[in-house]
Amino acid sequence: MRTHRWFVPYLLLAPAILWVVVFSIWPFLNTVVLSFTDARPLRTPQFVGMENFARLLADERFGYAMVTSLVYVLVCVPLLTFLPLGLALLVQRRLPGIAVFRTTYYFPVIASVVVVGIIWAWVFDTRGIINESLAFTGLTDEPIEFLIDRWLILLSAISLTVWKGLGYYMVVYLAALTAVDRELHEAAALDGAGAWRRFWTVTVPAVRPAMLLISALITVAAMRIFSEIYVLTNGSGGPGGQAQSLVMLIQLTGKGLNGNLGYASAISVVLFLLTIGPLALVGWINQGGEIREALTQRRRARAARRTPAAQRGAGAAGRVEAGEQ
């Protein structure tokens, strides 16, 4: 007779659960605790309450990092949400040579961001291909210092991020476009709808979940930008650190024997709150209808259970009154 080993599923899940606890949950909780202390390496931390968070408001470096990250989000989200959709629609047409085009645009995705960053640094250097081309055509007399000016550094880094991410998000949209029924396009065309109207009324609603997911992923990735700016500025964050991102500021604040781990942890908590918001919003938008429907069904079930009880109570009261009469 075979006995049911109830513990086997839990035993199989134990390694994954242990991994998540050790490398995700515990570091996160430890970071939250450290954010309320003045922790430094080789020193016993002391509780300082909200002092680290109050210090953020007066820290000029934190202000620069916030602006950098927010600008990155505001520029990258629309570009990497709509440009890949246009490329996916182009690839879907199966034009001659489109397979080469698809492979070419996906190649940056598999390339190391550090390698791509080094190549980008050469391209935007004062003696790089862009400045040499501008000088050759006579558009500029002096080389443009793309990697010295704060805003030009951001422009260079954003162009790198967009170029590297186009292929990946194009593939995501291609997968979403396979769910679009061709008959809907044909029916809309028979009704007199043009290509632009069919795009907004048929294609966009079909890829809306993928579009929301991509927007959330880009927002999170843009808020956590690090490698692109770090490589382009050789780790300095630009002039006076004005082009630093939040992750760069965390790394520079907490590293070394003199690193302020408590303050770096406070910045990390703020970054976590900024990145969890878009994910929660997308989850609510995607699942909001199902959640509302479940709540409505639950209220109806409760009302249905109350109705027979109320009817029985009314019937009993009626019988009592009849007996008294």
UniProtKB/TrEMBL annotation:
For this protein, the record's Pfam families field holds: BPD_transp_1
Instruction: List the record's Gene Ontology CC terms alphabetically.
Output: plasma membrane
Compartments annotated for it: namely: Cell membrane
Topology in the membrane?
Multi-pass membrane protein
Question: For bias kind Low complexity, which ranges apply?
Answer: 306-325
Tell me the ranges covered by the ABC transmembrane type-1 domain, including all copies.
66-282
Q: Where is this region: Disordered?
A: 302-325
Q: Which CDD domains match?
A: TM_PBP2 (cd06261)
Q: Please give the biological process terms from Gene Ontology that the record holds.
A: transmembrane transport
Give the stretches traversing the membrane.
7-29, 70-91, 103-123, 151-176, 206-226, 261-285
Keywords associated with the record:
Cell membrane, Membrane, Transmembrane, Transmembrane helix, Transport
Family of this protein: Belongs to the binding-protein-dependent transport system permease family.
Protein name, UniProt field = Sugar ABC transporter permease
Protein species of origin: Actinomyces bowdenii
